[in-house]
Write a structure and sequence with these properties.
- The structure is a single chain.
- By secondary structure, this protein is mostly beta strands.
- The chain has one domain.
- It has 3 helices and 9 strands.
- A 7-stranded mixed beta sheet has the order 3-4-8-9-5-6-7. Strands 1-2 form a two-stranded antiparallel sheet.
- It is globular.
- It starts with a strand and ends in a 20-residue tail after the last strand.
Amino acid sequence: MFVFSNMGQKLVDTSYWASEHALMGFVYISVNAGAARLLLPRVQESHLPDIGSANEVVISFASRFDPRKDPSIEIMFDDGSANPFCLFISRDQCDCWASLSAAKSIPFSVVTQGNGEVFACEAKVRKVRRIPCLLPWNASHANSVRR
């Protein structure tokens, strides 16, 4: 697994950047001190303008194909457009899935290897029937499920 050095909610250093996962471009969510940090590898940094234009971040949890399989996670960087930037990740790309999925909101940041934290906000968290959900937080929650 990966090693993380933290100062409270701030990520100070990690072995993730040198991992095969990062070199292949997989993002990773690390949770510490009640905050979620999305680690964005260098090969994914071209998405920073899309991430930075977000008015809010909505994290949705569901099973992507079959409710009996491991849940998948949708991270939507909602900029108010008809086509917000989204990332879809598996449970294996998050080190503390249980605490993240149980939250209603969580401090959220995007961290890059060279620049550290490049985006931060309070993310809203919800459970949905299926992914992709792609609904803004304030839209009718026809796809939402009760907690």
